């Protein structure tokens, strides 16, 4: 007997808002299959407002309301049974974040939950990360978003330490990351990794996914530190416009990819890592998995 369900995840980030619709197939004697049916990304860049003025602008509130209304209709078209919508760094720092959540609820009927950095890291880590992590290896997991970067250190298959820092691509673009915050992040990574040898990085986020895709590497194979350094040099040798025309990057990716590469390269240097794995995971994937597990328990 085969059972199929459609679940959806809405990820309201500091750079973009995403809707992931996933078809979950259960068959007796087989491992549960999660297939991405649809992925829609809207580059609203809430962090551009919030990290400067502490508030989401009227124009972006209007765009958010329209986007959520569209997402609701798309979920209906896909026959989605359950969904969860989580908002991260920009929404949790916005003085009018709760007000925006209420406005969206009134207009579209969608419930949005604003989550903290640790909750965000836990949801992402609960995806298929365990398939990648080997018990005899050490890994530093790094998720780079528009407003924050989440770290988790794994050793012997277990989580040793995790922390979220207000260092993100949109913040760095706007020059809103203080030296002290960057130094705190550097010191934390160096401290928690100091007693471990042969650490590999695991990277997630739209920018590292884009870099991995460009590399042409097979899924499951890591990028080397030297490749990331060379690609970073290539990125920095082009203007913003050239990154769009020559590297075929989206308008809202062509600027944030520079600070993202800086964060990943810095983390590799601090952790003394020579390679980075890039699994296809993110907050939206984690939301789908958490929805599935909750439903199995109930």
Description:
- The structure is a single chain.
- It is built from 13 helices and eleven strands.
- It has helices spanning about 45-55, 60-75, 90-95, 95-110, 115-125, 130, 170-175, 180-195, 205-215, 225-235, 240-245, 255-270, 285-295, and strands at about 1-10, 15-25, 35-40, 80-85, 115, 140-145, 150-155, 160-165, 200-205, 225, 275.
- The mean pLDDT is about 95.
- Helix 2 (about 60-75) packs across helix 4 (about 95-110) and helix 8 (about 180-195) packs parallel to helix 12.
- The protein has a six-stranded mixed sheet with strand order 8-7-6-9-11-10, sandwiched between helices.
- The longest helix has 20 residues, at about 60-75.
- It has about 300 residues and is α/β, with parallel strands linked by helices.
Write the H/E string, N to C.
EEEHHEHHEHHEEEHHEHEHHHEH
The main β sheet shows up as: 6 strands, mixed
Helix/strand/pairing class, anyone? alpha/beta
Helix share, percent: 40-55%
> Which percent range describes the beta-strand content?
15-25%
First-last Cα distance: 20 Å
Oligomer kind: single chain
What integer value in Å does the Rg equal? 19 Å
What overall form do the CA principal axes indicate? globular
Question: How is the secondary structure organized here?
Answer:
Blueprint: E1 2-12, E2 17-27, E3 33-42, H1 47-53, H2 58-77, E4 82-87, H3 89-93, H4 97-108, E5 113-114, H5 117-125, H6 129-132, E6 138-144, E7 149-155, E8 158-165, H7 169-173, H8 179-193, E9 199-204, H9 206-215, E10 223-224, H10 225-237, H11 240-246, H12 257-271, E11 275-277, H13 283-297
Parallel strand pairs: 1-4, 4-5, 6-9, 9-11
Antiparallel strand pairs: 1-2, 2-3, 6-7, 7-8, 10-11
């Amino acid at each position: 007997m085969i059972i199929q369900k459609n679940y959806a995840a809405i990820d309201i980030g500091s750079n973009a808002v995403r809707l992931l619709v996933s078809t979950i197939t259960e068959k007796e004697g087989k491992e549960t299959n999660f297939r991405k049916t649809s992925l829609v990304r809207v580059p609203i860049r809430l962090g551009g407002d919030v990290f400067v003025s502490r508030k989401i602008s009227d124009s972006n509130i209007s765009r958010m309301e329209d986007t959520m209304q569209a997402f609701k209709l798309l979920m209906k078209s896909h026959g989605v049974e359950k969904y969860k919508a989580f908002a991260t760094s920009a929404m949790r720092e916005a003085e009018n974040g709760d007000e925006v959540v209420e406005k969206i609820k009134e207009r579209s009927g969608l419930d949005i939950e604003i989550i903290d950095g640790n909750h965000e890291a836990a949801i992402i880590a609960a995806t298929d990360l365990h398939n990648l992590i080997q018990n005899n290896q050490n890994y530093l997991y790094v998720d780079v978003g528009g407003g924050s970067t989440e770290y988790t250190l794994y050793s012997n298959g277990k989580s040793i330490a995790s922390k979220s820092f207000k260092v993100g691509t949109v913040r760095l673009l706007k020059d809103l990351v203080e030296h002290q915050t960057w130094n705190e992040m550097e010191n934390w990574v160096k401290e928690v990794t100091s007693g471990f040898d042969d650490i590999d990085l695991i990277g997630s986020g739209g920018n590292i996914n884009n870099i991995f895709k460009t590399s042409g590497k097979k899924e499951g194979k890591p990028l080397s530190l030297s490749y990331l350094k060379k690609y970073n040099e290539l990125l920095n040798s082009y203007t913003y416009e050239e990154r769009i025309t020559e590297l075929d990057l989206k308008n809202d990716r062509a600027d944030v990819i520079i600070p993202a590469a800086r964060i990943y390269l810095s983390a590799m240097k601090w952790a003394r890592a020579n390679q980075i794995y890039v699994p296809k995971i993110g907050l939206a994937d984690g939301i789908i998995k958490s929805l599935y597990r909750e439903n199995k328990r109930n």
